[in-house]
Design goal:
9-stranded mixed β-sheet; 23% strand; 8-stranded antiparallel β-sheet; 23 strands; alpha+beta
């Protein structure tokens, strides 16, 4: 008798049923017009990869890129992008060996090949099957996993495969649900046995201060830790225990307490970096933590993971991309007064070019991997389960699906999170009864759902079910109340938040193209340093903040396009800088000039910013 997997609280809709709208669709369009939609045209690690018979990198970069490019193509329903993605999948499937080996290397290279790339490409193939229902995928995945089962008996997991073993559970569980065989769960347990034990990792050393500069560790590597947060979402399918999620909560609490930032990600440049606002966080860690939160929100049904996902998606993700998404950073800083080549960078092991905006600053993994951020977020805003639809986020989107054999559309419209409200429309041509489950964010001071003259109140952090017979078109309004709040940060600093958006003091930006002499860095896929044109050394001179709304621009996540701001009283303070980087703390909290009103913008709309500021002398949080 085959083992029955425990059902997750929710599942993702098939990608073909999701139709992004409003600003969210615009973000995907910008991404398709930028690096994501063009890497295969000029970047040799994609265009001439060994995965498609070329001579360049044959490991993680093509799988990383496809993991975002494929859902992007189908979410936008762009035939040109679809055909370019299919070309890669066709080449990868054609390259599979008779014994099931899938990765692009010679027989002599197999024993030393890092199987992390296999885990990644299998995730991509599973995603492609969801997009296309291609009948070639399931047998190819089956053969590759059979080969892996034999391979790791003789060649135990090591390096990146050992620290990211759980990622292979995603295609394994997918395959087991389709054609269950005992060896598959045996392989899952074998991967866990050979992989890094993260519970042991969290027993001690993560409580400590960051390791000395220049010391690199797989165990404190930020991307590994962002990925591993999804382990409980996967292992709970076998155990059925809610304790799996409590383990994740303890790990999250520890990361937040020792290394957390105001925008939901922890510092890791490239390993865990403590709480200094000038230590960086790698872009890969942001997108991977988002993906972990997406799995956790679906598997557990707990809204707090969707809260964290929005915090990352609306703040940390866009802040490390240029507004047009033709360039990105390797490391972002919460307090980032310039993006220049540093002689003595504050980062642990990353180079002085890590906070430049460019094609591949410091290292090219993020160039390929940032592509999954927005598309997978779009796929996670609505989930299916409990016989109905769960609204995990109120970003504008639409799902077109069937419930009990009847066609149903659920559409969310509006400008959330820039406005803390949204309209939700349910369309059912024929009567159909199902629950519409509304996530009420944990940050909401109050929430109301108004429909047909009736108003329902909801509790923060709860899931509000609307159980009814739906027929025709029904629209209701969801609104959340949230006042601006100051979050206490280490060493007496503070940051400003309202709803899911963190706000920062934007600096004037002067973008200067550099590295023109490097082949492949031609416009528009070029490198930039960004210099400040306005002062940055301020403290909070008061604790009142006024909301200032304005129209949304063509590039929503930009200083010019930001649809909302907070007006705050600030005063200049004595604060040193060196090598293009602010000191972690000011020299004094005493104001050295008159207070003035400053317009803070959403963190994700800034490239240069001050987010954690001191409270000026005489000012205190209530």
């Amino acid at each position: 008798m085959k083992t029955k997997l425990y059902e997750p609280a929710f599942r993702f809709f098939p990608a073909g049923e999701i139709r992004p709208a409003g600003w969210l669709r615009r973000q995907l369009e910008i991404q398709a017009e930028g690096l994501s939609g063009n890497l295969d045209k000029f970047w040799p690690d994609i265009s001439d990869s060994r995965w498609i018979g070329g001579s360049r990198e044959g490991w993680e970069r093509v799988p990383y890129w496809l993991d975002g490019f494929l859902p992007l193509a189908w979410l936008l329903d762009r035939e040109d992008l679809k055909q370019r993605g299919k070309r890669y999948v066709d080449a990868i499937l054609a390259g599979q060996r008779e014994d099931g080996w899938l990765c692009p290397c010679s027989d002599g290279e197999r024993a030393d090949y890092d199987m992390w790339a296999l885990f990644l490409i299998l995730k991509v193939l599973v995603l492609y099957e969801d997009l296309t229902q291609d009948p070639r995928i399931e047998p190819a995945v089956y053969r590759a996993l059979k080969n892996l089962d034999r391979h790791i008996d003789a060649n135990t997991l090591n390096r990146w495969a050992q620290t990211r073993w759980f990622e292979c559970w995603i295609p394994l569980l997918w395959l087991y649900e389709r054609r269950p065989e005992d060896w598959m769960l045996g392989l899952a347990r074998k991967l866990k046995a050979q992989g890094l034990d993260y519970e042991a990792v969290f027993e001690d050393f993560l409580y400590r201060e960051p390791e000395e500069k220049g010391r690199w560790s797989q165990m404190s590597h930020g991307v590994n830790l962002a990925m591993m947060l999804k382990i409980s979402a996967l292992t709970s399918r076998l155990s059925g225990s809610r304790e799996e999620f409590r383990k994740t909560d303890r790990m999250l609490e520890l990361l937040d307490r020792c290394h957390g930032t105001a925008v939901g990600i922890f510092t890791a440049d490239e390993c865990l970096a403590g709480q200094s606002p000038v230590r960086g966080t790698e872009l890969c860690a942001v997108t991977e933590m988002m993906y972990s939160m997406e799995h956790l929100a679906a598997a557990s049904g707990e809204g707090k993971y969707a809260d964290r996902l929005e915090l990352l998606a609306f703040n940390a993700l866009p802040a490390t991309l240029s507004p047009d998404m033709w360039s990105h950073q390797y490391d972002q800083q919460v307090n980032q007064i310039s993006c220049v080549v540093m002689d003595s960078p504050p980062f642990g092991t990353n180079s002085g070019e890590s906070n430049l905006f460019g094609l591949e600053p410091n290292y090219g993994c993020c160039t390929a991997n940032f592509n999954q951020g927005w598309p997978k977020f779009a796929l996670s805003t609505m989930l299916r389960g409990q016989g109905g639809v769960y609204l995990a986020s109120y970003a504008p989107n639409k799902v077109c699906t069937q419930i009990d054999g009847m066609p149903v559309e659920v559409e969310v419209s509006g400008s959330y999170p820039f406005r803390l409200e949204a309209d939700v429309t349910v369309r059912a041509p024929e009567p159909v009864r199902f629950p519409l489950l509304l996530r009420i964010p944990g940050w909401a001071a109050a929430a109301s759902v108004t429909t047909e003259g009736e108003s329902l109140a909801a509790e923060a952090g709860a899931c509000l079910p609307l159980r009814r017979l739906w027929k025709g078109e029904t629209t209701f309004h969801v609104a959340f109340a949230a006042a601006p709040e100051w979050m206490g940060r280490p060493h007496g600093m503070a940051a400003l938040r309202r709803g899911p958006l963190v706000y920062a003091l934007p600096l004037g930006e002067e973008w200067q193209q550099i590295h023109q002499e490097i082949p492949g860095r031609e416009f528009p896929h070029c490198d930039y340093q960004v210099l400040p044109t306005t002062p940055w050394a301020y403290g909070f001179a008061g604790t009142e903040a006024a909301v200032k709304e304005r129209p949304m621009g063509t590039f929503p996540f930009s200083p010019e396009g930001a649809p909302v701001g907070l007006e705050v009283l600030c005063a200049p303070v004595a604060w040193d800088s060196a090598d293009g980087c602010a000191a972690p703390l000011p020299r004094s909290r005493e104001a050295v000039g008159p207070a003035e009103k400053k317009l803070f913008l959403p963190y994700g709309c800034t490239s240069l910013r001050m987010t954690e500021l001191p409270l000026c002398q005489g000012v205190s949080l209530r």
